Amino acid sequence: MPTFFKFIAATTKAFALLTLVLSSINTFASELTAEVDRNNVSTDETLTLTIRYTGNRNDHVDISELRNEFDIVSNYENNSYSIVNGRLSGFKEWTFVMRPKREGTLLIPSFRIGRNISDAIEIKVNKPVYQPSQTGQDVFIETIVDKSTAFVQEQIIVKYRLYYSVNIDFQHVDDLKIENAILEQLENTQYQTKLDNRPYNVVEFNYAVFPQASGSISVPALNWNIRAARTRSGYSQGMGRYELKRLRTEEKPIVVKPQPASFPAGATWLPASELTLDETWSANTSNLTAGNPITRTLALKSKGLMAAQLPQIVQNANSSAISIYPEAPNTSENKGALGITSQRIESMALVMNQAGEQVIPAVRIPWWDTNEDKLKYAEIPEQKVTIASSAALEKEERNKAIASQELLTPNQSAPTGATLVWLRLWQAWAILATIVSIIFFVLWRKATAPAPAAHTPTANHQLTRGAQAFSMLKKYCRENNPQLTRQQLILWAAQHWKQNPPKTLDELAARCNNPNLTGQLKLLDEILYKKEANTDWNGQVLLNALNEWLKSQAAQLSTNGNGLAPLYPN
Fold first, then answer.
1. What is 337-372 written as a DSSP string?
2. Helix (H, G, I), strand (E, B) or coil at 311
3. Does residue 361 lie in a domain region?
4. 134 occurs within a structural domain
5. Which of 215, 311, 450, 494 has the fewest C-beta atoms under 10 angstroms from its C-beta?
6. What pTM did the predictor assign?
7. Helices 539-559 and 515-528: crossing angle, nearest 10°?
């Protein structure tokens, strides 16, 4: 009997351990990353390195190699931990402001904590040859545009670089607005530099601009009112401690080129500095069996495109040989100081319906390389796989079972009655353990599932972006341009639904749930997939259907007592 109670105690401990593992599965995930705010500097400038570690070790990073190439001007450490929905999350972050010791290509080394290793980073260091025209003043500003000519929907980086050698604070800054363009505010950067041997603090205010029509656009001149501390000589003469500086930025014209005629008709226009397509499988594709699913994941990553610009990677490719069951796509973007990077991930379960040799079709996405100014393709070639029949697999398993039984010697006796009792008892506990494990797992999944986002009114700046996107949508509809209309519909949807926006025309139709609008969206989809120009499409009909749906939504909100004004008044 004591043995029985020991068995119960051991099983209880196993249950407790299983519960602990399930409830803290995310606690032990760790990662080490390193990134800089600038990768092109001069010897008189500083840059900021941020090292972030998520994990359960209490270690510090070793920066001895870093000091070989950089002087550390300042550094600080930040720790943050929290429990959300029963999940422990947190990070430790080290920030270093540093100045390069020499010109050339320098390397920020990899850092290591436990088994986690960060990537090395290459930094280009130039001579400090450029001198702004306003050098010598306490406060001044530059306007920098990374290109004076760009394609429609290509990313343009606009920088406002503010230099100051005295204490300042901002009184008023005009909002940046550009007609026929979508604006995205990027991460700001701060560093130090020397001009004529005078030290300055520098703040760069960065924006990504995406022109939506060919022709020309203009980055307007803006007024910046800044309160600046007077120098010691000015203060000693009784002029007060502060003075108001009125700065004005430069106007910058930009020529916007249309989509090249050589770009494939019907394909989504993708002007980017980089576009890659990667593939992963949940299992080895050399061991596929008819009827058994396998998961394929495709990741489309870009530099210079918003997530809403990325197209659907795989169209409906079901066939008699292969059935595809796609999951909802996952998109994300990062708005760094150097521009926007984005990705779209599509996962799908593939079920092979027939045994024998089958072909998984190639995936080929055209894009325009803005650095080399030419057409390129991000692609995964077709794959030939051999599918085993389920009957052959079952026969192989039966043969293995028979062979293993034949290995038993004649001296092996049948289990005794007492052994059978313990065997039955062990089987009962095993079944109970499985049931309890499943219950704990379900409860844990429910506890850690994110709460549904509440519907809140859109912020004013989001309304402005939404109105800009809708204005461009009206323009493309009235021009009867199906391709640009499709892209602008997705961009507008991304502003209209901030939480989980539709990524395709089918998803947009399902979200609106309006028969008239659904019909027009399907018609647009059919025209785009004919792979040829179509002059018979009337975009005004689609625009009218969308306007009617928006009016019905506004009326519904008014009936519910929200009293909101129309999102996009005519």
1. TTEEEEEEEEEEEEEE-S-EEEEEPPEEEEEEETTT
2. coil
3. yes
4. no
5. 450
6. 0.59
7. 150
- What Å distances lie between residue 321 and 235, 317, 358, 392, 559, CA to CA? 84, 10, 7, 18, 51
Closest CA to 490 of 270, 291, 290, 292: 270
Out of 356, 391, 426, a domain closes at: 391
Residue 43 above 90 pLDDT?
Answer: no
- pLDDT for the residue numbered 90: 76
Count of CB atoms within 10 A of residue 30's CB? 15
Same domain, 288 and 383: yes
Question: For the chain, percent helix, then strand, then coil, each to nearest 5?
Answer: 30, 35, 35
pLDDT of residue 391: 60
Residue 449 domain flag: no
Q: Which residues, 6 or more positions from 45, have their beta carbon under 8 angstroms from its beta carbon?
A: 38, 99, 128, 191, 192, 193, 202
Least Cα distance to 458 among 492, 496, 500 occurs for 496
Please give the span between the terminal C-alpha atoms of the chain, in angstroms, as a whole number: 84
Residue 285 has pLDDT above 90, yes or no: no
Q: Is residue 553 part of a domain?
A: yes
Class of residue 4 by CB neighbours under 10 A (exposed 0-12, middle 13-18, buried 19+): exposed
Average pLDDT, the chain: 80
Task: Please write the tens of the pLDDT for every residue from 478-508.
Answer: 888 887 888 888 888 888 887 788 878 888 9
Question: What secondary structure does DSSP assign to 509-554, as a single string?
Answer: HHHH--HHHHHHHHHHHHHHTT-S--S---HHHHHHHHHHHHHHHH
Instruction: State the CB neighbour count (10 A cutoff) for residue 183.
Output: 17
Angle between helices 505-512 and 482-496 (to 10 degrees): 50
119 and 144 fall within a common domain: no
Range of lowest pLDDT (142-146, 180-184, 254-258, 433-437): 433-437
The two tokens of residue 15 are: 């249950």
- Provide the residue range defining the domain that includes 508: 460-559
Residues 118 and 154 grouped into a single domain = no
Query: What domain count does the chain have?
Result: 4
pLDDT at position 308, please? 94
